[in-house]
TrEMBL record:
PANTHER family: PRESTALK A DIFFERENTIATION PROTEIN A, PTHR43162. It comes from the Bacteria. It holds the Pfam family NAD_binding_10. Residues 6-178 form the NAD(P)-binding domain. This is Uncharacterized protein YbjT (DUF2867 family). Signal peptide: none annotated. InterPro entries: Ergot_Alk_Oxidoreductase (IPR051604), NAD(P)-bd_dom (IPR016040), NAD(P)-bd_dom_sf (IPR036291).
C-alpha cells in the first residue's frame, strides 16, 4: 500500500495516477475527502498534515509514503510512519533549498530545509525530490492572457528552467516503486532556461497570437499581486527571490532523463497540455 499526501495537488495527483496504472494499491490523504475527486480505485482518507494525529490511521499498512512538505509537523508524522512499519519516504521538496543568495533567505526555503532534515533523520529509506520552478506557475498569467495580449509583472528578464509536473511525478513515482533511490537528492529542472518574457511569448505562440510581457516596477508589481490574492508575505518573498534571477541563466539538470530515461518535457509541451487555461 502506498500513501500519497498532497494527492489532490498538481504533483501528487499524477503520482496517484501512475501508481494505480502500475497496478498498486493507493491510499490518498486529503483534508476534505468529499471534494477530492480521485479515481475510484483509490482509498481516500481524511487527514491534515498540520495535525499529525489525524495522519496516523492513514499510515497503517503502508510500505511507502509520498510526503507533501507541510511546515512544522514532519517529525511526528515520520516518527509515526516508522513506528507503523513504513519503509520508504519520497519528499516533494524544492531546489530552492540549495540556493545561497540573499533572495533565498525566506520562510518557505527555511521550512523545506527543516523538513528535508527531518526526512534525513527519520530512519526510513528516503529520497528528496527537489524541483525548481514549476511550469504551472505560468498559470498566474492566465487571467491577463485570456483578457488581452499583455502580461504585466515584475522582472521580465528573471530566468528559470520551468519543469513540467509530469516529470516531477515520473521521478517521484520511480523513487517510490524501485530500490536504488535511497539517500538521493534529485534536483529537477525543465530542459531550458527561459526568461519570464520568453515564457509569455511562447504561450502566445502556442495560442497563435502575440502576447508580450510588460515589466512593471517592483512595488507596483507587488501591489498587483496582492490585489490578485497573493498573500503579502509571499509577494515579498517572491519579489526578493526573482530579483536574484534577473539576467542569470538557470541551471539545467539532467536528472529527469537520468532517472526516467526520457528528456524533460519542454515548456512548449507544458503550454500545449494546458492551452485551455489560456483561452
Ligand atoms: N510552485 C513551484 O514553483 C514549486 C517549486 C518547487 C517546489 N514546490 C513545492 O511543491 C509544492 C506544491 O505542490 P503541488 O503544486 O503539487 O501542490 P498544490 O497543487 O498546491 O496542492 C497542495 C496539496 O497539498 C495538500 N495539502 C496542503 N496542506 C495540507 C495539509 N495541511 N494536510 C494535508 N494535505 C495538505 C492539498 O491537499 P487537500 O487540499 O486535498 O487537503 C493538495 O493536495 C509547494 O508547496 C512546494 O513545496 C513548488
Amino acid at each position: 500500500m502506498f500513501l500519497v499526501t498532497g494527492a489532490t495537488g498538481t504533483v501528487g495527483r499524477l503520482v496517484v495516477d501512475q501508481l494505480i496504472a502500475a497496478g498498486h494499491a493507493v491510499r490518498a490523504l486529503t483534508r476534505d475527502p468529499a471534494r477530492a475527486r480521485l479515481p475510484a480505485a483509490v482509498e481516500v482518507v481524511g487527514g491534515d498534515l498540520a495535525l499529525p494525529g489525524t495522519v496516523e490511521p492513514a499510515l497503517r499498512g503502508v510500505s511507502a509514503l509520498f510526503l507533501f512538505p507541510a511546515p512544522g509537523t514532519a517529525r511526528p508524522v515520520l516518527r509515526a510512519a516508522g513506528e507503523l512499519g513504513v519503509h520508504r519516504v519520497v519528499l516533494l521538496s524544492s531546489s530552492a533549498v540549495e540556493y545561497r543568495h540573499a533572495g533565498a533567505d525566506n520562510a518557505i526555503v527555511a521550512y523545506h530545509r527543516e523538513i528535508e532534515h527531518e526526512v534525513e533523520q527519520s530512519g526510513l529509506e528516503w529520497t528528496l525530490v527537489r524541483p525548481g520552478a514549476f511550469a504551472t506557475n505560468a498559470r498566474q498569467w492566465a487571467p491577463q492572457i485570456r483578457a488581452g495580449d499583455v502580461v504585466r509583472g515584475p522582472f521580465a528578464e528573471a530566468e528559470m528552467a520551468p519543469i513540467h509536473e509530469r516529470d516531477i511525478a515520473d521521478v517521484a513515482t520511480r523513487a517510490l516503486l524501485a530500490p536504488g533511490h535511497g539517500g538521493a537528492r534529485y534536483t529537477l529542472t525543465g530542459p531550458e532556461s527561459l526568461t519570464q518574457a520568453e515564457q509569455v511569448s511562447r504561450i502566445g505562440a502556442c495560442l497563435g497570437r502575440p502576447v508580450r510581457y510588460e515589466e512593471v516596477p517592483r512595488e507596483a508589481a507587488g501591489r498587483l499581486m496582492i490585489q490578485n490574492g497573493v498573500p503579502a508575505d509571499v509577494v515579498a518573498m517572491t519579489l526578493r527571490f526573482q530579483a536574484e534571477l534577473v539576467g542569470v541563466r538557470a541551471r539545467v539538470s539532467s536528472t529527469v532523463e537520468d532517472i526516467t530515461g526520457h528528456p524533460p518535457r519542454t515548456f512548449d509541451q507544458w503550454v500545449a497540455d494546458h492551452l485551455a487555461d489560456f483561452r
